[in-house]
């Protein structure tokens, strides 16, 4: 007797998608690749054009409308919070409430809830911690992307099946480094750097540029937040005429274009987590600048040198660190090992939606 095919289920993929943040769109790309064919994706996003390029047949839900997202929850058979640090209040307490409302409604409907490739925190408020801890006790499965999140979840004694693996973006294909071109900066605005802090970084940058004839590419990973950084620093009088003449600004929607930039780079200096990961996948010489523990954690795991923005070393020491890594690609064996570990995230989806 023929075995009956499993019925296709619609699942709502919820994240910071379609906001022209390359890191979050990279997470969505991996999630879609890992999603079993029997699951039909409904995706919360702002710019639907970004999503249509990744998943032409997906149903796109306006993520900026809580009402539309709630309506979608009443038409699907599952909710997946897909990648990133969605459950935190350091960026916005309002966004935390948004995600918690969706989880609670899904639980009330009795549809499974999965947290995939998530970070946990940071939390500014005790109320945030209490609400998240209470809500997560009833989700079906969780995969964490960093040890700190996993340890906090264990301290909370969450009953759900849990695992910890490197960020899912590590699963994207690796490339062969070619080098020979630019120094690439993936920098972002941050309260950790005042005028003197930026001056510190820029002076260290100019020190390594005195010995090499290379352009400087300012690559905006989050278009809205990063694209104006060079102009802002220039207006503040922090960009020298020499650096200005070498500098070019880029903002891409395509991960392929980003990887092309990294593959040809002599050095990548990322602040953003997924810029660090993609630079390593491109085989690029990389030194991270950490504004957040998630960046430090990823750098330590991949043996990437990094500097904490809260304790910048002497300018000459910083320039010396960057100069040591210039034109020195990472260990490809280490990267492949991390890629294999990151594939563990798919297990929880298969476990819940079998």
What are the salient characteristics of this protein?
354 residues; seven-stranded parallel sheet; globular; alpha/beta; 16 helices; 13 strands; single chain
Would you summarize the structure shown here?
The protein is an alpha/beta fold.
Give structural notes.
- It is a single chain.
- The longest helix has 17 residues, at 93-109.
- A seven-stranded parallel β-sheet has the order 3-2-1-4-5-6-7, sandwiched between helices.
- It has helices at 22-34, 48-54, 66-73, 93-109, 126-136, 147-155, 195-209, 223-226, 229-235, 241-246, 255-263, 273-281, 293-301, 315-325, 332-342, 346-352; strands spanning 9-17, 39-45, 59-62, 79-87, 113-120, 141-144, 162-164, 183-186, 216-220, 247-251, 267-270, 288-290, 306-308.
- It starts with 8 loop residues before the first strand and ends with a helix.
- With 354 residues, it is an alpha/beta fold.
């Amino acid at each position: 007797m023929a075995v009956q095919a499993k019925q296709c289920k619609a699942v709502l993929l919820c994240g910071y998608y379609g906001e022209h943040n390359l890191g979050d769109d990279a997470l969505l790309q991996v999630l879609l690749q890992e999603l079993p064919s029997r699951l039909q994706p409904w995706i919360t996003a702002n710019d639907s054009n970004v999503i249509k390029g990744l998943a032409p047949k997906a149903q796109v839900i306006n993520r900026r409308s809580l009402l539309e997202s709630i309506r979608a929850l009443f038409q699907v058979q599952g909710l997946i919070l897909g990648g990133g640090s969605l459950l935190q209040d350091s960026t916005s307490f309002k966004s935390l409430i948004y995600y918690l409302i969706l989880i609670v409604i899904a639980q009330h409907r009795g549809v499974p809830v999965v947290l995939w490739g998530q970070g946990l925190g940071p939390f500014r408020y005790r109320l945030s911690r209490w609400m998240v801890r209470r809500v997560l006790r009833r989700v079906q499965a969780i995969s964490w992307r960093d040890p700190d999140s996993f340890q906090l979840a264990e301290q909370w004694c969450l009953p759900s099946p849990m695992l910890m693996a490197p960020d899912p973006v590590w699963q994207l294909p690796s490339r062969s480094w070619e080098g020979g071109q630019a120094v690439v900066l993936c920098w972002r605005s941050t309260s950790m750097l005042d005028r003197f802090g930026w001056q510190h970084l820029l002076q260290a940058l100019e020190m390594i540029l005195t010995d090499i004839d290379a352009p400087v590419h300012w690559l905006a990973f989050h278009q809205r937040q990063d694209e104006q950084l060079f102009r802002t620093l220039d207006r503040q009088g922090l960009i020298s005429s020499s650096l200005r003449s070498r500098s070019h600004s880029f903002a891409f929607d395509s991960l392929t274009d980003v990887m092309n930039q990294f593959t040809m780079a002599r050095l990548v200096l990322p602040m953003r987590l997924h810029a660090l990961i993609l630079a390593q996948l491109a085989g690029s010489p990389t030194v991270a600048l950490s504004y957040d523990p998630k960046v430090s954690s990823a750098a330590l795991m991949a043996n990437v040198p990094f500097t904490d923005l809260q304790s910048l070393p002497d300018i000459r020491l910083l320039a010396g660190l960057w100069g040591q890594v210039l034109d020195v690609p990472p260990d490809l064996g280490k990267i492949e090992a991390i890629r294999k570990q990151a594939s563990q995230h798919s297990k929880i989806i298969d476990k819940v939606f079998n």
